[in-house]
Structure formats: C-alpha cells, structure tokens
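Subject: Interface between my chains keeps coming out wrong

I've been trying for a while to get a sensible model of this assembly. When I model each chain on its own everything looks fine, but I need the whole thing in one frame so I can look at the contacts. Pasting all components below, labels as-is. Any help appreciated, I'm running out of ideas.
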Amino acid sequence: MDRRDLLKRTGAISAGAALTGGAIPALGISAAMAAQEEEFLVWTSFNDEVRGGIIEGLGAAFGEANSVAFAHRGWTTDELSDALPRSVDSDQGPAVAQVNNGEFLAGPMARGGQIISLADYDAEYGWSERYAPSLMARCMLSADGTVFGEGELWGLPAESEIVGFYYNKQKFADNELEVPATLEEFETLLGALREAGEEPLVFGNLDGWQAIHLFGELHGTNTTREFLDGLIYRRGDVDFSDPSILEAANKVNEWNEAGYFVEGFDGITGDESTSLFTTGVGGILMQGSWGAGAVLAELGDNAGFFLMPPAAEDAPALHVGGVGLPFSITANAADPDLAASFIDTMVSERAFAAFIESGSLPIGEIAADSIEEGSVSGDLYTGWNAALAADAVGHYMDWAAPDFYDVLTGALQELLGGQVTAEEFQATLQEFYAASFA
Amino acid sequence: MQRLSPSTGKFSEEPTLAVGSSSSGQRRAGPGWEPYLYLLPGLLIFTLFVVVPIIAALAISLTAWNGISWDTATFVGLENYIQAFEEPRFWTALWHNLILIPYFVILPTILGLAPAALVHQMKLRGAAIFQAGLFLPYIMPGVLIGVVWRWMLNPIFGPVNSVLEDMGFHPPTWLADFTWALPTIGFIGAWAAYGFCYVVLVAGIQKIPADLYDAARLDGANGWQEFTAVTLPGLRREIAVVLTVNLINALRAFDVVKATTDGGPGDSTTVLALFMMNSLDSNRAGYAIAIALFLAVVTLVLSLAVLKLFGDQDD
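Reply #2:
Try treating it as a single job with all components included. I did that and got this:
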C-alpha cells in the first residue's frame, strides 16, 4: 500500500468511526477490525482450481493489507455474463468483475452505467503505458461507451492468449524437419509430413471455432495491423471485400485439397484435436496458448511451439490472439479506489509469476529468467514476447460484428466442406458485415 | 346442500338459502365467493408463474432490449417479428425443425409400437426389465445424449465408424457431413424418444379389454388383424399423447443439437431454439423472445392439430 492509499484508508476508517458516534471505540473494537468485516466481492471466470487458487491467494493478501474481507466467486464465462448486469442492477453484485470485451458485454454495461470508466485510474497506475497498445485497445471504449477500440480504458485483463503451432519433436527429427521461417517453408514442411505418412496438421472443427483460428493465421500473413484493426474496430474504409480475405480463403482451400489437415478434422472438436495430438497423432497441432499445459503434460520435452511464420523472412505476420476477460469496476463498488487497487494487484509481478507457474500467459512481457530454453513453454513465452515486441497480436475475426461468430463458423465449415467457393465465402462475410452496421 | 330423507332413506337436494323470489318460485342460491377462495392459491401461482411471464415476454418482444440494461428496452412495435420473418436463417432453422418431425415423432412412435404389440401378444417374460431398459434413454439429459453420440460417431476414434470400416464400408463423418448431419440428429432424437413411446403404448395396450382380443380370435383374426382391428384403435389416446409430446420435442429441439453439431456444418442443423439462443447471446433479447413466442405459437397450433386428428373425439 502506498502513502496515498494509506491516507485514504485512514480517512475512511476515521469517517466510519465518526459516523458511528464513537460507538466502536466505546465497545473496545478497533476501527480497523470493524472495517475488516466489510466484504470486498470479486466475480471472475476463474472457476477452476488452479486459477481460482491464484485469485484467492492474491485476494487474501489484498484483503489483509486493506482490512477488507476478500470474497471471490468463480463462474463460467456465460454464466458470469448473464448474472452480472442483473446483480449490479439489484445492488447485489461484486465490486470488481471480469466483463467481456466490447459489444459482448462491456459496451452495453458502460452505456447502462453498470461499470465505471478506468480513465482516472489508468492515469494513476499507468496501465495503458505498461502494456501493448493493441492489447489495451481491446479494453477501450469511448467515454459514452458507444465506440469500441479507442477512448478510455473500461477494464484491464490480467491474462492473454495467442494461437500457434505445437509440434512433435521426434517426428520432426525422424523426418529431418525444422521449424519453418516462412509460410512457404511451412507448406513444404506440411507436404513432407504428408509424404512421410503422418497427419500433417491436427485441428478439429466440429465446434467451428478452430477454423476461425486457421483462417485468421493464414490471413495474418498477408495483412497489416491497420487493416485488421480497421476491420474489427470499424476504422477507415476496410471490409471483407479486401483481396487479402479472398487470398486467405484460397489458401485454406489449397491446404485442404493438398491433404494437410488431419483426416476427419471436420468431425472432431477443438479439444479432441489436442487429445489426439498428445496421443501421438500428427506432426503439428494448431492450438492456442491454453493448450500448452496439456501438450507439456503428455509430450513433455518431445514438444515444441512456433508461431505462424511470415510470408517472407522480414515481413510482418499477425497472430490470432487476444486478452483474457478484463477486470472492471462495477457501479456497486462502495470504494472504487480500493477496487482499482485490486485490479492493479491482478497485474502485479506476483500475479504474473502465478499465471506463468499455472501455464497461462500474463498480459505483459515474460521475464527472461522465467523462460526455460528448449521446452514447449519456453518456446511459447519466447514467441509471445516476440509478438508483443512487434505489436503482432492480431484478433479473433468473429469480433468484427455482433452475431458474426455463427456466420463465420458456418461459412468456414461450408468452405472446408466444399459447399461454396472462396468467392462465395467472401461474399457471405461481406454481405453480413455490411448489413450489420447499415 | 344434500339432506337425508327420513322417509326414503335417500339424499335429496334442498335449497339452503332463499335469495329472493320470482314468479317461477324460489331461485336456488348461487355458489357465492367461497369456491373462488379455494381456487385463489392456485390462481395466484398460475398468474405469477404463467400469466405474468407470458405477458412480460410479449411486452419484451416488442422492445429492442439487449438483455443487459433496461435503458435499451425501447418500444419497437412488431419490428423484431418483421426482422425475424425477413431473415433467411430464421426460415432455414424452422425448416430444419420441420424436417426433424418425422424423425422425432413418427419414427419413435413406430419403434415403440412394434415391441409394445409384440411383448403384449407374445406375453414375454421379463418384460418389465426390457421396458425399463428401453425407457432409460428418455430420462437421460439431452446434453448427455448428445455428448455420448458425438463420441460414438467420432470419425477418428468413435466405435460406429470403426465397426463400419472393419466391415468394409466407407462411412461419412456423420455429424460433419452436410447431407447426413441433420438425419443423424433425427436418428439420435428417435433413439432418445422411442422408449417413452414404448412405455406409454404398453400401458395403453394393457387397458384394452381382453374380451376384445378373445372376440377377435373367435372371429378367426390373425396377429396382424388383431393389431389393426383391436390394438391400434384401442391406442388412439396413447398415440395422440406420444405424437404430441414428440412433436413438442421436435419443435423445441436444442440440447442434442447444441451438444453434437452446434448447428453446423454451416447452418445445416441450426434449429429455431438454437437460433434464438444465439440471438440471446448476441444481446438481442427482444428479438430472441419474439422468436421464442413464435415457436411457442407454432408448437401450440401443431400440437392442437395432432390432438384434434388423433385424440379421443369425445374429449
């Protein structure tokens, strides 16, 4: 606690004692103890043992330091998004909660006065100076909550994620293959695995979302930050009629026709594809950073990780990725300053160390002494730091418009199933995108 | 009020209160407010949990409410309904529901009727165990059924395709194939429902008087004639029940679809309830509720039509 916080807390305690007419001292209970009974409630999507343990450990220390009773409730993301607005409306909700980005939840809640802007706290703690601008933009809204991707910070995430490629080192060694430096080398590598009788690229698209990653990764090799941000945040004159969209769709078709995808990819889920790879099927797995734990647990040192290589060695490539659910201060917070202080705790060094230890990526750069060379997590952290340094963390393309997820997953399944041409696929996306904000 | 007559030893009706007179004599007292008092708790519960939510849903369907902040609940009239009717994905989803009807309604009824009639005619031993086994899928949660079948039909490690491949077939990826995905969901629905049909129909057969079967046999009827002349007409009410329940399940299909294909591949298995849920997830609560109400009306109309066609004419 810094001097400013200490003064603030002392002031709050004095004011509380004054309001009770000195009854607390008369009863022999210290003001600090009375304040300790105040509950500081936080709702998150940390409903698993590991991440729940992290926030409860950090929260307990925070509660002790600030003389409040820290309480945490973990939900599934959907349940959290459903319950939060109603609970805030009925004054029953938490002081701090994870609020899904943009129009998923943050925009409507900001406009409804259910969360408060973090602009003043951002100035105080320097969050948006500390972390990559492209990551912070995903947590920003205009002051009136209507424009996504710019303006003020309305939430701060503690974690992040990036999509890349896990590989089986033994299979690479057996076939004298190396991590590719360019997209062309990557395609040669996939062809070589096919020739060797291996399933080249493992992914599962029954539930639809992994094709968004595949398409986004391929599109990331032939686009720019400006275009992709424009598409997501509706900046400038960009849309899905761009040639880069068609080029990426054609590349998906090329890879499909070349037999680079695991047989039956359309009938297994994204999670099942990870299980398949960790049991030894396939040379490469396309999966997000969240898959590192499962890969490490099953394949250990036999696994590595690389990001999608660029079209040419010095060219930029944007990688599908994003931030975890941002922490926001709700209108229920009795003490917003305290809530902001808690949010800062979630991006402290101690929190980062705990996230790294648990296998998830923190929002910021990972210190060199946390990176174990040659391990899958080491590869992942090195890749993450490189992507941050190059400001190359791209987007999930379904963020481009409300309801777009269903359209995009459906159109990609149709493309991969040979039901539509690349041109028809592009037209479907463009038609929906243009109509959604008409 | 009924009173015992000392002369006849029987109960007789006598008016207890005279509320006035007329040229035709004394009028009997009306029921008064007392019966309504007995109905009041039920009426209150019904109003609170049925009438109010329906009115609220109707009201919300006329707004642009995002489901998050009441500030957005502005009145838009019939705009949500118009938008839905102009949306091709809405009609595609409804069409898929209609395609599922033969699978969810007719197929399980036939699959339930056949063993029910056989068990009755052949007087099989251990029929109760058989009955319980058939009923099991019906009491399983739809999501669980979906997850189990997704595993069974997995193209890489699922047992169904493994067996078919061992037999020399080249099966499709059932749940990811644009031609097969919807029929596959239909078969899963039929598998889940036929046990229910069987149990209801067996209970119905047991109520058919044995005299009718004896009479049919005396007239020289064979098994098939017994079935068509006695069993089937005697099951009219039960058939109406299973058709109605299965029809409702076909129209509100959601959990099995969500757990197996989530509407894919493309939108080839999207059904109306899934389309509604996706709209709700996209913060379009007013629109989603308009779809839900439309679905409820369609379900009500079709269910009444089935009851009219197959139900007891005396009802």
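Reply #3:
Confirming on my end. Confidence is low (pLDDT under 50) at residues 1-25 of chain B.
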